[in-house]
Each structure stands twice: as structure tokens, then as C-alpha cells.
Amino acid sequence: MSLVPRLQSELAQFRRDGVYKELLYLDSPQAPRVRMEGRGEVIVLSSNNYLGLCDTLEVVSAGKAALDRFGAGTASVRFICGTFTVHRKLEAACARLVGTPAALSFVSCWNANEAVPGCLLGEEDIILSDQFNHASIIDGLRLAKAITRCQTAVYKHADLTDLEEKLRAAKDRRTRMVITDGVFSMEGSIAPLPDLAALCRRHDAVLVVDDSHSTGVLGRTGRGTAEHFGMVGQVDIITSTLGKALGGAAGGFVAADEAVCDYLTQRARPQLFSNALPPTVAASALASIEYLEQHPERVDTLRQNSSYFREQLLAAGFKPLAGETPIIPVILGETAKAIEMSRQLLDEGLFVTGFGFPVVPQGQARIRCQISAAHTRDDLDEALAAMKKVGRRLGLV
Ligand SMILES: Cc1ncc(COP(=O)(O)O)c(C=O)c1O
């Protein structure tokens, strides 16, 4: 069968299985309430706009000013046609925020997660990855294995015993690298960083933490998983995104020792063969970090909003996964059920996405509520009312 008819037939099957993803179009900035085409105003409980910075004046104005000052694009890769000064400032701010000597920006954290193992490891090395790590880490490992012939291994989710066994078995490798999400995006759980760091120290392993859902979210001032555990400066390599709490535009970074960032500048393929972040985006991300530094109380509001929503869900009879992050999943079982709940919630004016296999394990489909510091109590109460109404209809509460 030729390509297009085969794809059409598979797409039709997705629809029959109830797992086809409909794209919903927005006609306003990402915010607690958005204008959705064909729906009007809906409350959003499905974005990574954790600090509500997507439409914050300082962040948007910085992007506009950078457009005037630096123009629209970068026109080539950094080492060929120049690096904008705003990239240097952004990278200094990223390093300052997460507490490392240096940082290097990428067009996405996906790229950063591909760059780290693929560039820093070689044939004599091994990387060990948590079973529940993000897709970009999984693909980063696959790519590294193909490019560098390094060994790869997966340890059971947050299981230090399994990891230790695998580290022991890898004692003859030149470099042992352990990589974990800081906050697991489908669970809302936090990696056991103190134990992981101690284990890595004992086995002379490099610890890499992807803080995409933790930067701006965890710790008293939003510096991430390390701050949450009082361990700023103790993680070897941090990757993170500029597309979630930090303004929500786009981009990612690797934060680490200067030599690590310098080596990535010299050798990482996404740096060498792909344009840098547009300066407008770099300027907005920089303004987001500066805003966060000046307004740490936003992180506190995020925490209060998240606790409130979690408590109210429990009081209404839902059984969200336990946790202390703004990611609050409610497990429903089958994928079609999660998609159906999401559809019914949207009919009630609440935008919450349902996730099923293969994004989450078979039989553990869920809707995932994500809270923002910008949600008002009214937003959250209206969202809860919709959850209760649909939950009762579906026999969940
Ligand atoms: C844990 C994690 N890492 C990396 C990424 C990719 O980030 P970006 O959108 O910057 O490529 C995501 C995005 O969903 C993520 O959740």
C-alpha cells in the first residue's frame, strides 16, 4: 500500500478507537481563560503557563523591543553568523536561576535533551534513564546509542535499588550518567533528588535532571527541584525549557559547568546545525527570569492555588494522584474514557486534556489538571464545578 492511503486508514482507525486528537484553536493569549474558536471563553487547566507569564506585560514588551532592536531571525547558526548579545544575557540568567556556573540555550528542551547524551558520551560510556522520563529523554538516548554507540539502560521509576544494581554492573564504564525528570509530567511527582545525588556520588556518576516542569515551579523562589530539596549547586547538569513557566514562548537550555557548556557549543549537533532561538523569544525568556527574580511571591501563589485545587478535588470525591506540584492527574483507566471526560468538560467550558496509551501506561489513562499562579479563586471554583458535574455524570464521584 502506498504511503497516503496507509496513513488515511490508520487515521480512520484512531477515530474509531476514540484516540484521535482534535486540535483546538485559540484566538487570544495563553492565560487562565482563553478565547477558543467555536467555543468562546473557556477556562484552561491544561497549559504549562505555571506562573502566568505568557501574557505578562514585561515579558511581551521585552519581545517587542527585541524585535525592533535585533530584527526577526538569527539567519544562521551561532558560530557561523554571530550570536546575539541577548543570548549571552539569557544564558547568564538561566545559570543564575538554577545555580550552575554556566548555561547554553537551545531552540527547545527537546534539542537540549538530544544534545546532552549524544554529544557528551562515547562508546565506553553508559546512560541510565528513569522509566517514566519524558519522550525527549527517551529519544535522546536512542539517538546517542545510534550516534556514539554508548550503552543505555532504563531503571524502574524512582527505584534507587534497581538503579544501584545497574550502576554497579556499569562500574567499568568510563562515564556513568544518570538522567531523570525533576517533576514527572504525567504523574506530578518529584524525583527523589537527595537519594539520587548521593547514589551518583557513591558510584561516581554524572547526574542530569530535566527540570522542565520544575523551573519556576519548585523551591521557595522557583529555582527548581534542587531548591525544593535545599540542594542548589549540587546537580551536575540541568536541562530545562523556556516554553513552560518561563514565559511559555519556546526554547530550552543546558545548565552546567563551563566546560560542559563550552563542549556543547563546540560539538552539539543541534547547536552546530540549527538556528539559535529568535532574539524576540530570547528576550521574552530573559524578561520572564528577571520577573521571577523580582516576584518570588508568584511561586507561593502557584503553590497555594495547587493545594486549594487538590483539596477541593479530594473533598468532591475525586482521587487525584498524591503530590505537591501543580500537576494534578486523575486516573480514569481506559484512553477513550479520558478523552470522553475531556470532551464533556470542554462542553462545560473547561479545557483539560485527557491522556492515554502510549503517553501513559496501558489502563492508566487520565485527565491532567495543571494549575497556574494566574488562576483566580473564581477560575478554580468554576473549574471544580465543571469537574463535579461531569464526574457525577460519568459515575466517578
Ligand atoms: C520533562 C520535559 N522535558 C522536555 C520537554 C520538551 O520541552 P520543549 O517544549 O522546550 O522542547 C517537555 C515538554 O513537554 C517536558 O515535559
Write the layout of secondary structure elements.
Elements: H1 3-16, E1 33-36, E2 40-44, H2 57-70, H3 78-81, H4 85-98, E3 102-106, H5 109-120, E4 126-130, H6 135-148, E5 151-155, H7 160-169, E6 176-181, H8 193-202, E7 205-210, H9 225-228, E8 237-241, E9 252-256, H10 258-267, H11 269-272, H12 279-294, H13 297-315, E10 327-333, H14 335-347, E11 350-351, E12 353-355, E13 365-370, H15 377-393
Parallel strand pairs: 2-11, 4-5, 4-6, 6-7, 7-8
Antiparallel strand pairs: 1-2, 3-9, 8-9, 10-13, 12-13
Helix pairs in contact: 2-12, 4-12, 5-6, 5-10, 13-15
Bound molecules: pyridoxal-5'-phosphate (PLP).
Pyridoxal-5'-phosphate is lined by residues 108-110, 113, 134, 136, 181, 185, 210, 212-213, 241, 243, 252.
What spatial order of strands do you see in the largest sheet?
3-9-8-7-6-4-5
Question: What is the CA-CA span between the terminal residues?
Answer: 47 Å
Strand-pairing-aware structural class: alpha/beta
Please describe the biggest sheet, giving its number of strands, its sense, and whether it closes into a barrel: 7 strands, mixed
Number of strands: 13
List low-pLDDT spans.
none
The small-molecule ligands in this entry are: pyridoxal-5'-phosphate
How confident overall, as mean pLDDT? 96
Q: Please, how many helices? A: 15
User: Could you spell the SSE succession in H and E letters?
Assistant: HEEHHHEHEHEHEHEHEEHHHHEHEEEH
The percentage helix is 40-55%
Strand content: 15-25%
User: Radius of gyration over alpha carbons?
Assistant: 21 Å
Shape: globular
Quaternary form: single chain
